[in-house]
Amino acid sequence: MSSPDLVCLSHLRWNFAYQRPNHLMARAARDRRVFFIEEPIHSSSRSEPEIELTAQGVTVVRPVLPEIDDETKLPPLFNRRLLRKQVTDLFRAYRIRDPWLWYYSPLATRWTSHLPHSAVVYDCMDELSAFRHAAADLPLVERRLVARADAVFAGGRRLYEAKKRLHPQTHLFPSSVDCEHFSRARCSQPDPEDQALISGPRVGYFGVIDERLDLELLAQVADARPAWQLVMLGPIAKLEESDLPRRPNLHWLGPKPYEQLPAYLAGWDVAMMPFALNESTRHISPTKTPEYLAGGRPVVSTPIADVVEPYGRLGLVEIALGADQFVGAIESALRSDRTALMATADRLLSDQSWDRTWARMDAIVAARAATDAPRELRAREIRPREVPPREIVTVRAA
User: Could you check whether the bond before residue 201 is cis, i.e. omega within 30 degrees of 0?
Assistant: First the structure.
């Protein structure tokens, strides 16, 4: 019997940064069809979704909304009906029947709650309501999704503690790692061209560069140790280029493909996680923690709860608060015994592969989908009506 199709609704774009959704959906696609539906794009030249088949066998779908000017306003209800129709047409075109609906974006329920399904999953990887520019009604929309879900997965212990009170089928699945991929950083290899020009010692970071980073801390560390070279890799989100501190020893190299990260990591003396301590980082469980360790790098981090436990407690990550402690922790990491570090890290990471995580998730959802208990919560298919042109409202300046 073939596995059911999986339809993933994500707030992250497939090609933005290779993160938890990419790892899990790529593994799901090994034995089923996977449709990865991103947030809509705006276009004046097309009205049909963009559809792309990735190398991992995942079908990426980008719904389309009309491009509008400053004088034209489309009511939210119109946009939702348009998106609803596009996703319903996708189901018909690809003959998707009773799939698992796998949500990363609770807001996507506004235009997908009508879809037929055999299971609803909420894989919560962040407390999105704490992020900059989050929708005001996101907490309410999320609670409604949790109420419909057959299973809720939490990407970190803090998230698990927050969500388990809302749903009896909440399971902790912290960040996993592809050890084979990142262990390449333990071997000598050619430096990437843009990093080869940077002297050492090098202290590096890879990941999304957004409001979760403590940019002032970065500047203070760079100023305190001008001989250290701070290497920053990753796409910028919700920040302007002008927000980034500039120093001769602070290098912003931009986003890099997932395949190239071990080569950059191999050239670092220390890996760092200079996260700010604010609402947006209260519940995070950085995927880069096990990735750095799999690469054999000593790690320094600010006291993020899911890093302190277990990585700090086990001595795998140096925990530091404030610039003085952060500088001291990096100095300690530069002197650390990597052989002992890697042996301890390998023991911990042996149970944290993405393959194992997906297999466990798959089994939980399959068991839930096979029971009759959650079926009364599942929506029946509703045929969306066509949206008449008069529902487009044009507002002109007085």
Answer: yes
> Two tokens at 41?
């794009």
- Assess whether 20 and 84 both reside in one domain: yes
Distances (CA, A) of 215 to 243, 260, 285, 386: 8, 25, 19, 48
- As given in the structure block, the two tokens for residue 193 are 């061209």
**Domain match, 157 and 234 both:** no
Q: Residue 187 — φ and ψ, nearest 5°?
A: -105, 145
Structural domain span for residue 286: 179-349
Residue 90: which H helix or E strand, with range? helix 76-94
DSSP per-residue codes, 293-344: HHTT--EEE---HHHIIIIITTTSEEE--HHHHHHHHHHHHHTS-HHHHHHH
- The domain spanning residue 266 has which CATH number? 3.40.50.2000
> Considering its fold, how many domains does the chain have in total?
2
Clarify whether residues 258 and 277 are in a common domain.
yes
pLDDT at 391 over 60: no
Same domain, 209 and 153: no
Question: Is the distance from CB of 269 to CB of 295 less than 8 angstroms?
Answer: no
Assess whether 158 and 242 both reside in one domain. Answer: no
Q: What percent of the chain has pLDDT over 90?
A: 79
Q: pLDDT digit string (tens) for 155-200? A: 999 899 989 999 999 999 998 999 999 999 999 889 999 999 999 9
For 272-301, letters b (16+ CB in 10 Å) and e give bbbbbeeebbebbbbbbbbbbbbbbbbbbb
Distance, in Å, from the CA atom of 137 to the CA atom of 226, rounded to the nearest integer, reads 45
* pLDDT confidence tier of residue 375, bands split at 50, 70 and 90: very low
In a domain, 1, yes or no: no
| Contacts for 180 with CB less than 8 Å, ≥ 6 apart | none
Are 67 and 47 within 8 A, CB to CB?
Answer: no
Closest by Cα among 76, 64, 151, 148 to 114: 148
